[in-house]
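Run log // design_07
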């Protein structure tokens, strides 16, 4: 079965076009190293919860959009190998992303699927 990295981040609305362009570039890089899927989604129905919610999780401000993303790999080992290559890629060595979103509020992690229909 596959392996999945998941991400949630808050992006200022004014930076969404820059984020989309940045994502297209980074997604192409991940795919070029072997990622099976690279998906970025803009929040559409994510109410601010009383205790928990996507906006609360990333401390989204009123002028920010929550983005939920995932990358699919063939296996955990494949992901680990791809991640080394991606992190060393010269196209990702700059700080461009810092002007687009606050990485300190990004939530991310790796997941082992247990059901896929």
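design_07 sequence
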């Amino acid at each position: 079965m596959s392996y999945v990295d998941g991400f949630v981040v808050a992006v200022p609305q004014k930076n969404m076009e820059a984020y989309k362009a940045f994502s297209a570039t980074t997604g192409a890089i991940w795919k070029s190293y072997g990622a099976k899927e690279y998906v970025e989604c803009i929040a559409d129905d994510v109410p601010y919860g009383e205790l928990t919610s996507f906006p609360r999780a990333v401390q989204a401000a009123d002028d920010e959009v929550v983005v939920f993303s995932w990358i699919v790999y063939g296996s955990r080992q494949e992901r680990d190998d791809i991640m080394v290559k991606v992190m060393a890629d010269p196209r990702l060595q700059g700080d461009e992303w810092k002007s687009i979103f606050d990485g300190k509020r990004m939530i991310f992690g790796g997941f082992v699927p247990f059901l896929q229909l």
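The first helix runs from residue 16 to 32.
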